[in-house]
Specification:
Layout: E1 6-14, E2 18-27, H1 28-44, H2 54-60, H3 62-73, E3 74-77, E4 82-85, E5 90-97, H4 100-103, H5 110-128, E6 135-139, H6 144-155, E7 161-165, H7 170-186, H8 191-197, E8 201-206
Parallel strand pairs: 1-6, 5-8, 6-7
Antiparallel strand pairs: 1-2, 2-5, 3-4
Helix pairs in contact: 1-3, 1-7, 2-3, 5-6, 7-8
């Protein structure tokens, strides 16, 4: 991770049984190129995807997820006749398994959600060990402003910066899709899709949160 333009893009996904935080480590330029290529492939198939959101595409255009994951994992050359496993993108995920009481709610209680997010973030940053100067961008969600100081305290000693991003950022969209895909895999859904993604997954670790 020595390149100065390498960044880490975070997004979260929550279901009935799991809360997942995922990170995509790559450069902004590579993320832009991956999205552009995926859109090009989908356009040839007759569909347009302005933004890649796993929860939306899973219902409306599942092929869009497949195409994007294929381009996240593989680099194509010679008019897509030759592909190699990407060396410039890695995926890191950590997840919290909800207890029985938490599964009865659509979402974790707000304070609990924020605490779990911070714990997952700390787990991933420790494993990724970003180089000094690395930019970390977290998808903007309700509560991110409240925990940004804690996230910066975690990443700061490593020399990394933490800011909130927006869904239009290519790296955030990659993180959205890989995180949602991982959550569904943990719930025994879309195993074939995850079988492709796992080729560049460096970590998928359970986080055990403290009791309330």
């Amino acid at each position: 991770m020595g390149e100065p333009d390498v960044a880490i893009f975070f997004d979260e996904s929550q279901g009935e049984r799991h809360f997942v935080l995922g990170a995509v480590v790559t450069s902004g330029d590579i993320a832009d190129a991956i999205l552009a290529q995926a859109r090009k492939v989908l356009r040839r198939k007759g569909t347009e995807v302005p933004e890649f959101h796993e929860s939306v595409l899973n219902k409306t255009n599942p092929e869009g997820i497949d195409v994007l994951i294929d381009n996240i994992v593989f680099e194509y050359r010679r008019q897509r006749q030759h592909r190699t496993l990407r060396q410039d993108v890695t995926v890191w995920t950590a997840y919290y398994r909800k207890n029985r009481a938490e599964r009865s709610r659509q979402s974790l209680p707000f304070d609990r959600l924020l605490a779990v997010y911070v714990g997952l973030f700390q787990t991933l940053v420790a494993e990724i060990a970003p180089a000094s100067g690395t930019q970390i961008q977290c998808d903007n969600f309700q509560g991110i402003e409240r925990i940004l100081p804690e996230l910066r305290k975690i990443a700061g000693p490593l020399g990394a910066t933490v800011d909130k991003g927006v869904s239009s950022i290519a790296g955030i969209q990659l993180a959205d899709v890989v995180t949602g895909t991982t959550r569904r895999f943990l719930s025994n859904q879309n195993g074939d899709r995850y079988d492709v993604l796992k080729r560049i997954v460096r970590l998928n670790k359970e986080f055990v949160a403290r009791a309330k």
